[in-house]
């Protein structure tokens, strides 16, 4: 049996009110009858659009003309046909000839619903919360313990809405306060915040709610409520009553019964807790105030393509001059036009004409209203400008090397899939500026020690020996960089390798607090596994003359409870954009091998 042909055009989805009513014969025969019957046309009056204009002094007299006499066949057809075919029948009577088949367009009052939806479009808010937003009423959020331990400042992130803490949440906070982990530190910080809120208040104030703005948080306009009495609610039989999650669900249900008409929403980071709440008919949401972006496709890429008519619209008052910066001559352009306000400082711009003209690659240096100053880039794809034997293989790598080799850029973030050259470019730039130009004293490399699979246990040796298994990526790149030097022979390569090793220090993140790095080239690898708090701890270690480079791929996050939207790497990229001493580039094209490129696409 042959397969049916796939339609080339998508079907039009009609609204419910546009479907024809099943009160008469099917519309297809009716349309055929209208098309096949061609009676002698009756004289019809001219339409209003064809009447000639009358001078305004004389009012036109509109005479009522009798309706044209229609044939019996057409009248019968119109009686049975749906209202959509009325226009087609009128055309048949007016013109005296049938309209061609297949060209009758049904008239719809509203546009059809979109047939395509975004694949990752997820409703973050519950229906109860969305209804409260539409009516403008305040909500009461019941917080799970994991929200407070994830973000200690979450109490003050709910704007004008109220916050309710069940007694079981306080009990679980007390159970997690011991230890030196980040979760334990957050639990202790929440306990201190709650103690400061409760102090100097009487029992009536706790019953009526404590203002969250008491400690100076002006954005928090709601109140904090505690569970002051035992609340019972009927949960399905079989659920363990002693489990903490079920007790919190019982509190949410009893609050809904007590405060009928008010939106009571459970906020939890636990996916299974939210699923259980939805199954019981309770509104539940994720805590998404820690997300920098809901859609990572909107993350700042650091690169923008100029429109084809950019120089036509912005070249009217064009100024250009040359300056010698850092031993290199660069050309500057001052342009004015409507496209400038959408740019950011240190953002890369490019224009590659299709008519064979020379492409333009530049970097925005200053923005003042609709006027911007752009600087041409150094071409690191040419062998004469190689960095420790490494040349840029594509446009994004050239942009990245311009940031890495710029001494005025103190903070650089590089994003990209596996094999785009992030580590190799950063290490080559570090070696060139430490060993050749002597701009920095040494290279410090660190990364998060989060295993991909099962942990293999404790590692022997000193701090650097313990970190060496985590630094296999840098060893691979050092081997590539050492092979490029073939002039000194085997002994020369060995001596160079020992010299390089003496200038590279591998440090652990656990001992970074309190340190200050002066004139260092600091590389933070796998930065997507860092929380925003850990990134802040690292970046604030920078002393005078230190450059920090964050490398990572937000599609490969191994840390639990971290997502692409809440990763520390996403956080710093969004916060540092537009600063005159930082830069960011998203590397798009893999240069490792054809096997790695194909695997990243199909796997």
From TrEMBL:
Q: Which CDD domains match?
A: PIN_VapC_PhoHL-ATPase
Q: Look up keyword Nucleotide-binding and say if it applies.
A: yes
Q: Provide one Gene Ontology cellular component.
A: cytosol
Q: Name one Pfam family in it.
A: PIN_4
PIN domain location: 139-275
Q: Which UniProt keywords apply?
A: ATP-binding, Nucleotide-binding
According to the UniProt record, where is the region Disordered?
94-117
The Swiss-Prot or TrEMBL record annotates one GO molecular function as: ATP binding
**Matching SUPFAM superfamilies, A to Z?**
P-loop containing nucleoside triphosphate hydrolases, PIN domain-like
Q: Which domain of life is it from?
A: Bacteria
UniProt record similarity statement: In the N-terminal section; belongs to the PINc/VapC protein family.
Q: What is this protein called?
A: AAA family ATPase
Query: Which taxonomic lineage does the organism of this UniProt entry have?
Result: Bacteria, Pseudomonadati, Pseudomonadota, Betaproteobacteria, Burkholderiales
